[in-house]
User: Fold these one by one.
Assistant:
Number 1:
Amino acid sequence: MRAAAQAARPAAPVLGVLAALLIGALLLALAGIDPLMAYGVMLRGAFGGSRQVQETILKAVPLALVGLGLSVSLRARMWNIGGEGQYFIGALFGTMVAVTFPGWPAWLLVPAVLAGGLLGGGLWAAIPAWLRTRRGMNEIISTLMLNYIAVLLVEYLVRGPLQDPASYLPESAQFAPAARMPALIGRLHLGVFIALALVPLCYLLIWRTPLGFKLRAVGSRARVARTAGIDPAASIAFALIFSGALAGLAGLIEVSYLHTRLKGQLISGGYGFSGILVALISRLNPFAVVIVAIFFAALTIGMDATHSLAQVPATLADALQALVVLLVLGADALARRGE
Amino acid sequence: MRGIVKHFPGVLANDHVDFELARGEIHALLGENGAGKTTLMNILYGLYRPDAGEILLGEQAVHFRSAFDAIARGLGMVHQHFMLVNSFSVAENMTLGQPSPRQPLLEDPNTVRRRIAEISNQHGLRVDPTAVVWQLSVGEQQRVEILKALYRGAEVLILDEPTAVLTPQETDELLAILRSLAGQGKSIVFISHKLHEVMAASDRVTVLRDGRVVGTVPTRETDERALAKMMVGRDVTLAVAKGSARPGEVLLQVDGVFADSDRELPCLQGLSLKVRAGEIVGIAGVAGNGQTELEEAIVGLRPVKRGRIRVCSTDVTNQSPKTCIQAGIGLIPSDRYGMGMLPDFSVADNLVLSTHAGPRFTRRGLLNRGAIRAHAAKLVHDFDVRTPSVDTPGGALSGGNIQKMILARELSGQPRVLIAAQPTRGLDVSATEFIHRQIIAQRDTGVAILLLSTELDEVLALSDRIAVIYEGQIAGMVDRAEADLHEIGLMMAGRGGPARGAEAGP
């Protein structure tokens, strides 16, 4: 029975997704919509052609970046729920670089804004890291609370000091073209390839470096790690700051590529939170993060398509996404029970 | 009990066990850890249900669905870990879980107290009914447990390793109480793995090995050696062979150390001791007198409020565990699972917990899996760690093999000072033998060894000098050769420290 459960474990997420789609079909049918037709529209909307595929990949980038960061921090058992706030502060720092040095050439400005994104997210996560390691404050609470502060801070700045003088809308000045993510293949921009490059790097970091060894040891049993001479505070701080930096990078990339200027709430589709789910469903495997991020992105884009083409209510898309999360995590827990 | 069978996932804990208990007898149940003693008694007490077999009380077959059923039929059990509510008085603990005769009010406290007094007088169990449990010593708490069972009308008493937490004097008192109870017709099952107690206390002995009964013999007709052979299945050397120590310079010096316990109460109160190269200093004492805190203070896990700790001429007072390790400390922690190993890390990774970042195992920033696995393969072989492979998760190993793995790791770091805390607790005879031999071998290569053990037998067997810890201080220190068991026992109980040795160490 134990062996069977172990064999079932890799298949569990797939079964969970199938179950979610079945229940989703039931919901669609109840709403008077032909499920097969709706799923067909959804599939074409997400993967129907080169344009759709590119769109889906672009949408997956922020999810993957936040998910990758968490796949590292959760190894140290650090629940960074503050991805959303770090995303906003990363976007803010990158924007400040972009609007301060609009005359810089692209080869200098692009790395500079990227560094701004990493730095902003990392600094924002350094606050809960400090609170946790020096003051013993639970990181779940602090990261969660800092989200509100970050979003409201950005909301204020785009209405005040950072507001574009030429605009009446709550938004910053536009990024100079040299500050935007350059498209490399079709519409796939630099950010896509940065995210892809980070996948094996995160894997190496966790499984092949002394740093990752320490992170995992602290996450496994901090007291054992400490007894063995590992400083849990350093691992905890690294885990939070690393995941914060990647969330900040995600925010900056979205702003620089998609919105081309800093705005308020609009700049995030809740990626800071969805990224947590991506990491959990991937069971903290960086390679799986990419797949799950694309799946989530496809779900969102596909549902947009069904909304406009098949008159499926947008709330159903959210319901389906929630179903997927619940059933995949549930299937995983079931498969794990046998171990 | 007839033909009792109990399976747990992966183990057959009881394999057709027959066990009988006569009225008025003390029946010892002897066996190594994992032999199935506790399982058998938990079945008798209704905590587990047997897969097969039956329990007869007198002539009548009984089926206990829970401990309540067992209690109702006159069984009482004193567990290794006491089942008392610490913030309740002795009297309140008696009535806990018992229906009150005047619901919804609790039973009249005076009645309860009178009954307690009655039972304690009858059996010589001195206990103050108004005392709150946490204020009582471990020995007293144990008496409360026995009293509780009797209060509930127990005719059969099961005691699971009752002497593990007692001083030698308390053990003698307990054995006297048990004999008096048996004299009044109570039947007693006495679970133990200590041969001399079994010889001293019991009328009959049943030996269990690997879940099966090896035999039941009247105690008068056997001796320790024969019982040991039944228990282990081969001849065992009861004494540890070791030559005399050749102590060198002082490598560990603890000087007037004060530290608080986890509950932020003063725990170590000016403790001083010295351990020299090539000697084993054993700390005897009843659990809870500062052993854990001393262990943690030395390895940098517990803040020291006053005093100094020096390791090989490095001052490590309040330094990080890392610094302590670099200064030359190796630790076999008392809390094997909470401090010593990571259950989800492979054996290989567990063996490099503190050394993985060094040049031997990390090249150009990346861990060298090959070197780590080769290192593990060698240690697993040298220390006889029984594991399917070096990639097996550490948590899948048995207790003895986990301890060997920890020992292998600590010794591979070539410590100058080895802190061995409860190094063989819960281990079987062969693993214990192995670990004792390794500790002595380390001593002979010039390592300074501090042995912390609540098993007095172990302290006596291994130590060159014996210090007794009592309430966070060294109550006295004696050479092994001059050690007097009675005197050590008195010091463990906080009475009559010897005139010599108030100042610990040479």
Number 2:
Amino acid sequence: MSTALQTPEVAETPNYLNSEYGWKSWLFTKDHKRIAVLYIISITVMFFIGGIFASLIRIELLTPQGDLVNSDTYNKFFTMHGIVMVFFFLIPSIPATLGNFFLPMQIGAKDLAFPRINLLSWYIYIAGAIFALSAIVLGGVDTGWTFYTPFSSTYSNTFVITAAVGVFIAGFSSILTGLNFIVTVHKMRAPGMTWGRLPLFVWANYATSLIQVLGTPVVAITLALVGLERAFHIGIFDPAIGGDPILFQHMFWFYSHPAVYIMILPGMGVISELVTCFSRKSIFGYSFIAASSLGIAIIGFLVWGHHMFVTGMSMYASLYFSLLTMLVAVPSAIKVFNWTATMFRGSISYDTPMLYAFGFIGLFTIGGLTGLFLATLGVDVHVTDTYFVVAHFHYVMVGGMVLAYLGGMHFWWPKITGRMYPEGWAKFACLLVFAGFNLTFFPQFITGYLGQPRRYHAYAPEFQVLNVMSTAGASVLGLGYVIPLIYFLWSMKYGPKAGNNPWNAKGLEWQTTSPPPTFNFEQTPIVTEDAYAYGSESAPEEAHHHD
Amino acid sequence: MQVPLFPEAASSIARQVDYLYAYLSVVTIVMTGLIFAVVFFFAIKYRRKSPNETPRQIHGSLVLEITWSIIPFIVMLSFFWWGAEIFFANASPPSNAMDVYVVGKQWMWKIQYPEGTREINELHVPIGRPVKLTLASEDVIHSFFIPAFRIKHDVVPGRYDTMWFTATKPGRYHIFCAEYCGTEHSGMIGWVTVMNDSDYENWVASGGTEGSMAQQGERLFEQYGCSTCHQTEQQGRGPNLRGLYGSRVQLSDGRTVLADDSFIRESILNPNAKVTAGYRPDVMPTFQGQVSEEQLLQMIVYIKSLANPGAPASTGGRQ
Amino acid sequence: MTEPHSAVAEHAEHSPYLRHHFDNMEQQFDSATLGMWVFLLTEIMFFGGMFGAYTVYRSMYPEAFASTSMHMNPAFGAANTAVLIVSSLTMALAVRSARLGKQQALQMFLILTMIFGIAFLVIKGFEYHEHWVDMKVPLFSGHWDYSNTPEFPHQAQYSHQAQILFCFYFFMTGFHALHMLVGVGLMTTILMMARRGIFSTNYFTPVEISGLYWHFVDIVWIFLFPLLYLIGNARKLI
């Protein structure tokens, strides 16, 4: 069904990839598109490092006994899997890659507001990654990605400060990206690009940027205080001098809950782009989806206590957090319904990006709904700190976010590289990802309710069957990730050349060449239509659609 | 091979939690199924049949938006309500609950019964009687989790936490530590054994070679010189502890607080935090670092035993 | 690296300081100031985390905090407050000079601002030294003494919580001092740019946004001073 290969071969026009060569032209670039490519490479590397830890975890968990590695090593595996995946893959992923590349283009700008700060963001990310990888190489860190005190501040014997510094530094990369996006969207829209015409991908990244800017500094200071407590052997979380370890959790989750919305909102933005393009329909409920992104960002700051229902927090605080968490689910539900409604009477094609969008809608629904289990106080007391939580967040992070990322990468690959990926292999990999993912994580809901705690090196024997299923799924999932890596790389040299708009998509990025020229547009575009102005407003050309 | 979906249900709230979970699951399955089905159906029915199709644009419907916002939110409120009910029940131990004291440390659970019996990683409880656990940590944050009872609570250093349950089914059930606490976190596990009443009475009477917790606490009271100032029969330099436990205490700064476990623990470790009205600060030394969490609990049980007026005076020394 | 000019107006028609991804100087200025305001928002959240934690502990241990506050030197604190307020004045005057194109005045006010900034840091250094001598630095073992003295006959009871407050004192003023240092570095850079004659009535953006930063760091101190130095009733002034 793809129309990608029907456009004629385009001559090698000057574009951002061939405008200059040499490592200096990349490492000192100010072009947001090249910086996006730098990020794509870096976060892919970090993703696979995180994936290696995941594989080691799942291999250990094939048997109930801790027999592959010793406990300390296992504890380092899940800690480093979490730190790498959360701070060095999920948080930057879509904003720093697809956002960097396409946000300016979608609003008709030549670049972000602060190109040099954009490059600085990437260098800061790399510096943070070096610290994090150093912590790994030096011997690891075993506090869990959540760094709970007093274990992290006093008792752990691992490279906590090194890891915390890595996360602290990476936080600034996130802050600067968010800052850049906010100013860009406010000040650099092309003529006619009003707020009401912004693509939803831009709205999503804007809402994400608000969270990045407001939330990240809090985790920065929190981790700094833990690091200082470790360094000076005294600090504000130490119960021996009247400090409160639970205060750490409040401060940590004050960021880390909104952080999960940093992770998912851009993915939701991608889905809006995919569903409209591959249904060839305007989005259903534009203003509701835009408003829901802002709603999630704001309410997301008010629910952090739902990670702490069993810590001895006051009952009334727990009631409040439970109620607000129910509320924050509503805007997400709105999006799912609107995407589904967009497909109604559309013209739906089954290109790989759309398959990822289908997967997202289904799996995010499950992930989001299981979040409600956790928001429900009476059930949470039983399932918190078990594999139920692990399954929940992997459903939203992997089933949601990673699928959106892959969908977006496939969608925009021809624009970024000028080449098309092989559709057959892509569909196959998508299927592997979907099947492998569900086999990996669905059993974990069950083991969680049965009582298997998380972060357990060895587990009770009755959980083994489900754990074996989970590991089997993980191998399929891993294969599903490796295949795109291979064919994406392959396509850069051997893939058929893609035209300007292989998907016949709306959006300013498709009006320019593939790959785009360095300054994005030959002339600053003037915007006259709303986003997703697919098809016609009145004349139906749908004689073959029946009621 | 049978893979169960639910653990054993062995407490008074376990089935309720399971029903709520089942309700949540049904709603989830229905909603997910609905979305999957609709997406699947649309994907097939509206699949692209020719490359230049241009469907008519539909921009939105306020009615639909409101409907599919309000209805799910109302359903979520039902989740909230039912969950809050269970949570409230969990938070209020009955006044006749029997006390058991749990101290978590890397990487074991040390359990003390008022009768003096002690166990490591094992908890014995009678069937049908509410049991209130007082939880203390010697080091990092742990969490005491009994899946069969559907309860857990974090064990936080520097303070006491409590949880309660009524076991309803004899058997042996898992205890897990459910807050990552270091190397042997996954080894910090044990068993709770639910026995019928008479078996339990026999069992608990057979342990405890060092006397009851109250007696051990009394010995510590002597050993640390508490009786120097805290006389039980006459006024000393410190407040009389007879009848103290459970009463309301007026402090020197005007506040009134309840003399519960936490108050006594704090008064031993940080005496100047809450000074009783009429007494001077800076007189009682702090015992921080000198008494273990278990010893603190023993002393608290002793002081609790002084709460009944007319209870026999302790046999161990007065000055 | 030269940039293609196909999409841009000829150089002669716009300021040499116009970056090519902007359409005009006004857009560039607006973007820079909005960017700095957003950055200051992140700084508010950064310090806000510490202020929040401080508030939690202060509400838990009010007398301990009052006791500890007695050990702060309000003379130094007041001097620092005055120094910073005056430095904000000189900074504002520097920005004004830049807007008016007054190069000499700009440089003079920048230098004055830097002098006051450095004075702040020097006074802070004296303060820290005084705490060190007084054994009020719990961060280093052997440098904490909170026993009762004739001057403070009832403080030993608060020794533990006082350590928490002194941690806050050093961390909060430490991070603040770090920001001051960065501010002085910024001023140095701006001064060097000013001496090269870069600024004019048409282009003074770096001065403007550095001014915003400087004022922010000043305002953080305005909150720190009473919360750390002025708790409790009986004050010992000088």
